[in-house]
């Protein structure tokens, strides 16, 4: 290459391949010029290919690997939390500085995965937002494992909340499809080749709950070969917590934490809400699961009046799909199967050492009994807020009467908070807990309701002094702060195991 450069210097430097003295073209200089031009083009093309490869590889790595904490921290409450600094300094948990839901530049478009589809999978999710969210992750994983084409999931419109929202009203469809295109083909509707008869007589079934991948290959895949299109009419808890191949567990996380993003409108308002809360410093989210439907269907009426108990019982009997009718409330409460009441929550927060000035955000629907039942919490913590208090009516108007979209706002705030405390371990509590682990083991206080009920009763009948009660409450929760732990496995009893989405441990290590 060096001799080529020197040989062409007289021609190229004296006029780009022309002999200035004679005004004629130099044959040697012209040949060298053409050769150098081809070398330059080759180098340019090679550089473009190399950089394109690097960008694609970087994008894929970012999609597969979350931002992880440097170590596996431990934490406990050694003393009461009196100030914002106390809350921050009492834990070794990593706090991610940027909001999880802030807008990002779109990643480079991943290449389509090329595969022969074994059929089309239509899914109708059932339940509330977080039950459906986990189900979507499972269904993408099933579609990937069986080489199926997935239709954009349908959301539940017939549940107690009767929310008419579609997938596109809550989640960013374009991002969902594009961020998973290297794994599974996702389409908005069936191709035209399927006639009306196929659509109207589509084979419909609920997969068996808590199934491993072997069930889907042995029982479900042959059905797709026969029917080509299958409708899963129930999707909750249709994949096992444990025992799945590592790549499938990681894909469930990728869908949940990378592909499922809320719509730009929801993210914008959620970020506004988070910014307002962060301006005043540390804030705590209390997921106070004390709505009318929760109490009616669980049969938990501790603290309710006789009239309220009758109203809740009537509601439970009015819904034929709810099979459990006769419920002994106090027995269920003593077993730790009831949400804590607002009055009980106020005592627990004080015992844990949260200062009176702590800003507490209530993430929930309408509290049964309204402000009357919240009075005790507000007396203990005057800085108690809800989204309706922080945002204007104009902000919330597009999302009102859409309980799932309102729940999405609470979800974003819950994931971003400094501390998250659920009063009941329902779907939102579990899925948010797992998301906070994924974000760096953000502090989540998992209340031991069975122990707390005993302690509360002992304190309220004057058997335990306040100091004894407070010490006991903090001791019970020393190892229930969302720190790294191994997911509990209970063979043959999957419902009693630790839920995958509350502790996706396969996705939290290096």
TrEMBL record:
Provide a GO CC annotation, any one: cytoplasm
| Disordered: annotated segments | 1-25
Per the record's keyword annotation, is Glycosyltransferase included, yes or no?
yes
Tell me where on the tree of life, at the top rank, the source sits.
Eukaryota
InterPro entries per the UniProt record, alphabetical = FucosylTrfase_pln, GDP-Fuc_O-FucTrfase
Where is this protein found? Answer: Membrane
Please list which residues make up the signal peptide. Answer: none
Q: Does the keyword Phosphoprotein apply?
A: no
Membrane topology term reads: Single-pass type II membrane protein
**Keywords in UniProt for this one?**
Carbohydrate metabolism, Fucose metabolism, Glycoprotein, Glycosyltransferase, Membrane, Signal-anchor, Transferase, Transmembrane, Transmembrane helix
So, what pathway does this thing act in?
Answer: Glycan metabolism
Composition bias of kind Low complexity appears in: 1-12
GO biological process per UniProt: fucose metabolic process
User: A single GO molecular function, which one?
Assistant: glycosyltransferase activity
Q: Which Pfam families match?
A: O-FucT
> What protein family is recorded?
Belongs to the glycosyltransferase GT106 family.
Protein name as catalogued = O-fucosyltransferase family protein
Species of origin reads Papaver somniferum (Opium poppy)
Origin organism lineage: Eukaryota, Viridiplantae, Streptophyta, Embryophyta, Tracheophyta
